[in-house]
Design goal:
The complex is a heterodimer of chains A (328) and B (329). Chain A is built from 14 helices and 2 strands. Chain A has 328 residues and is mostly helical. Chain A folds into 2 domains: 166 residues, no CATH class; 121 residues, no CATH class. Chain B contains 9 helices and 14 strands. A 4-stranded antiparallel β-sheet of chain B has the order 7-8-9-10, with no helix packed on it. A 4-stranded antiparallel β-sheet of chain B has the order 11-12-13-14, with no helix packed on it. Chain B is globular. The chains are: A mainly alpha (328), B alpha+beta (329).
Chain lengths: 328, 329
């Protein structure tokens, strides 16, 4: 996985016609065109249809039916999509609108990500250059704004791009971060396992732990993995999920406690007495958390079948799990 | 590394192994909490194992606008041996609350009716460039507590200004508060009202039948502007100055107030009408709140999840889950 492989494809898959999949959507496209404000930027209905065609070709599965395509194009941030395309085409009025709306937010977002004024300005300026684009041979302007597909807000997309840039920069400038083999698989690696991880000697404990982990929701597994494996801080998780970090703290505590009960119940179902189950869990909840971490990590890494690299990814606050064994 | 059981491998294959990195636009929508449940769970599964994307969304997530809990300097006081001051502080707080209560029930020397401000809790200043009647209204005019105030002399239509400008802070998509200008425009003479609170607090025939006589032109730092016209129609403008376009609602409704947090819109109207849009007005959902039957005259969301609304009879309703459920306070 190369660092840029997260970027969306700049060109849609080749098809007979970019708008072939939009046949039958004429009235809807006209309605969206009126709503998009494209006329203010001199974008014709035909050009607008072509924009939508490119979005559909890159975002909709090849098996997507009419209903899926309708849902896709009606859920697009159509005004911001038009603004981005108009800017990418070099429309001055569009750039006026873009700068009015996003200039301050771009620097603010860069500052929030980099936590360093000079880096933030450098990142934002660099992104401006990419957004403004360059003139390619043949008079075609190449702008990063062509990658915006109208899914999610333009401001949010700019934040993602900035974060992407920052990670690239961070990984480039941190000599201790392994950059060996920048293939796609590297991005799925997890931090190194703790050196003093406690092995679950009883296979029943392993299976009970797996069973308990399986019972979690995707969001709960994400929370545990982010906290125990990826070294995210409570504040970061709170921002990501839109709740206060104290809520995240309570949820992680509650999750680990519930896991302990489920593992204990699973051990009892597997023939252990309650006392044996508690001994297997070593009673202390800290050991259960070790097991949770260990099982999560194993289950995530073994699927890849290879060792992991160490990555230190903290930018705000600290998570003891990022470097040390979790102890409570 | 210890081998996994076959069951665990099957589980991983089914739930934890991503096919590819999500599209940046999809990650954007994830960060903005605008993905559907199925897609969101899919992203959660990917983020559980992908360090890079996990870090990406953590960095790109906007700062919340939540009010942080106020730290209590209990430990410091105890260390300094000033424990009695805690009682003094409590007494002082009680006194302050009593003074505030007295202030709130005093007659309001206001000459103009309250405006249908779309984000009352975000008001930080009612700085005005124009006449005093509106400018003299306390910043919390649209809050329920002030709406419960006693009667005061009603202004005449002639005494009301045609326009007034407010400086308002509102949450932005990145979670920060930024000022924007709010231009309050008189579109017609106000209907007869018996006191200041009538228009927003006390239900009467005019409040349920007659659309609000004033409209708000909200000019946020980013994104389109929204207002409720004098006829009770929701309107949008990209330039925030002209070109106001009426926005269609799923059913006929006399709107009273509009509130936006990023692309999330809330519209309140007569007889408990409440609508929500997560995509800047492209799609609307009617929110049914049992027992909410009075006119919705104020809506405020500090964050996408925490908000309240106020009705014409002075009721306050609070939500902490983005409007899924509302509780009367």
């Amino acid at each position: 996985m190369t660092p840029g492989s997260h970027a969306q494809p700049e060109t849609p898959p080749r098809e007979a016609s970019p708008i072939a999949r939009l046949e039958g959507f004429g009235p809807l496209i006209s309605e969206l065109y009126d709503r998009s404000g494209a006329t203010a930027f001199g974008i014709s209905l035909a050009e607008f249809t072509l924009i939508l065609g490119n979005v559909v070709n890159t975002q909709a599965d090849s098996e997507a039916g009419d209903a899926d395509i309708r849902n896709l194009i009606t859920s697009l941030r159509i005004e911001e999509l038009v603004l981005a395309r108009a800017c990418a085409a070099g429309n001055e009025r569009a750039w006026d609108v873009f700068l009015t709306r996003h200039r301050e937010g771009l620097y603010t977002a860069a500052m929030g990500i980099a936590r360093d004024d000079s880096i933030a300005h450098e990142m934002a300026d660099s992104l401006y250059a990419d957004l403004f684009g360059t003139e390619a041979p043949g008079g075609i302007r190449i702008s990063k704004l062509n990658s915006y597909m109208g899914i999610g807000s333009l401001q949010g997309w700019l934040r993602i791009i900035l974060a992407h840039t920052f990670i690239d920069r961070y990984r480039t400038e941190r000599p201790l971060v392994s950059l060996t083999g920048e293939d796609e698989d590297e991005d799925f690696d997890l931090p190194a396992p703790p050196p003093a991880a406690i092995d679950a000697v009883d296979p029943r404990l392993e299976s009970a732990t797996d069973e308990a982990l399986r019972s979690l929701t995707d969001e709960d597994r994400y929370l545990l993995a982010s906290w125990f494996l990826h070294g995210r801080t409570m504040a970061e998780l709170g921002r990501t999920l839109g709740v206060h970090e104290s809520t995240i703290s309570r949820r992680v505590d509650k999750l680990t406690g519930a896991l302990r009960k489920k593992i204990s119940a699973g051990l009892i179902r597997r023939g252990m007495t309650r006392r044996q189950a508690e001994e297997a869990l070593d009673i202390d909840v800290r050991d259960v958390q070790v097991n949770v971490r260990q099982r999560l990590e194993e289950s995530l890494q073994d699927r890849r079948g290879r060792p992991s690299i160490s990555q230190e990814t903290e930018t705000g606050g600290t998570n003891p799990n990022a470097t040390d064994e979790k102890t409570g | 590394m210890k081998p996994l059981t076959s069951i665990a491998k099957q589980r991983l294959a089914a739930t934890l192994m991503p096919e590819a990195h999500p599209d940046l636009g999809v990650l954007t929508a994830f960060v903005e909490h605008s993905l559907g449940r199925t897609k969101r769970d899919q992203i959660f599964r990917h983020l559980a194992i992908c360090t890079r994307c996990n870090q990406l969304v953590a960095l790109a997530a906007p700062e919340p606008a939540d009010v942080l809990p106020v730290p209590v300097p209990e430990r410091t006081w105890r260390q300094l041996g000033f424990r009695p001051w805690r009682w003094a502080t409590g007494t002082a707080l009680a006194g302050a609350l009593a003074l505030a209560a007295i202030w709130m029930v005093r007659p309001l020397p206001v000459a103009g009716p309250p405006a249908h401000v779309s984000s009352p809790t975000s008001l930080v200043a009612a700085a005005s460039s124009q006449p005093a009647p509106l400018a003299s209204v306390p910043p919390s005019t649209s809050t329920p507590s002030v709406q419960r105030g006693p009667k005061s002399p009603r202004p005449t239509a002639d005494s009301l200004p045609e326009t007034a400008h407010l400086t308002v802070a509102r949450p932005q998509p990145d979670g920060r508060l930024r000022p924007y200008a709010a231009e309050v425009t008189m579109q017609s003479a106000p209907p007869p009202i018996s006191d200041l609170s009538t228009q927003t607090s006390v239900p009467d025939a005019s409040s349920t039948q007659v659309p609000p006589p004033m409209s708000i032109v909200a000019a946020p730092a980013a994104g389109p502007c929204w207002r409720v016209s004098g006829a009770g129609a929701l309107e949008k403008s990209l330039s925030c100055a002209d070109g106001w376009v009426p926005m269609s609602m799923p059913e006929p409704v006399v709107a009273r107030v509009v509130q936006s947090v990023g692309s999330i819109l809330w519209v309140g109207g007569n007889r408990g009408a409440l609508y929500h849009s997560a995509d800047a007005g492209q799609h609307w959902n009617k929110v049914s709140v049992p027992s909410l039957s009075d006119d919705v005259v104020a809506i405020a969301f500090g964050t996408p999840t925490h908000g309240w609304l106020s009705t014409s009879n002075g009721e306050n309703w609070v939500t902490t889950d983005g409007g899924l459920t509302w509780k009367r306070r």
